[in-house]
Amino acid sequence: MTTPILGIPELADGQIDQFATANEAFRALEAAGNDFRAADLSSGNVTLTAAQFAGDVLIRCSGNTVARTLTVPAAKRLFAVHNGGSWPLTVARGSTSISVPAGEARLLYADGTASGLMSVAGGGGGDALGIVTESTTSRTLSLNDAGKYLRCTSSSATTVEVPPNSAVAFAIGTQIHIRDAGLGGVTIAQGSGVTVNPPAGGTLVLAGEGATATLVKIATNSWDLMGQVVAL
Question: Do 136 and 225 sit in the same domain of this protein?
Fold first, then answer.
């Protein structure tokens, strides 16, 4: 017999050398509450087995330089995931998925049901916002920009394009902070089928060094642009 959640061997009635089973259980509990498991996503997505999921409290992911998914089994578990890659990581259980930004960690809970996964706490392990510098005059936003601070440093006019959901599936509620840190101004371009809603009386142009704005995704192909404060 084993325990129902972590699968730790139980003592049997009248068992000889019970200390051996007890010591094994102590080691398993210690690992489940303190140890980590490395997950290399450089070659593709990773799916954890029930034993791997139960064995360690922290999953340290690396190698994800493109979009990757870490899939966990339908088991009850409080666990943490750290994204040591350079691209946002998706943690999935059934139809539920949670994004972990590059360099950050999330404390998650799986409730053992088909799609039972929730975020308990986030942040830590890296720069909570993240700074991206864009020195060219043209950029299309990518998943790696989600939650980041994008500094446009070109001295010429710069265009930042918001792609359609079919090309880049940002989560609803995604925020991207943009600053004209050069001299040429920044235009927010709308990709095919995308609507970017400027502030009342505003435009989609950040005019002048120091102008800032925040893009917030509010629907599948709809974003709000907020701010546009020009430094004096």
Answer: yes
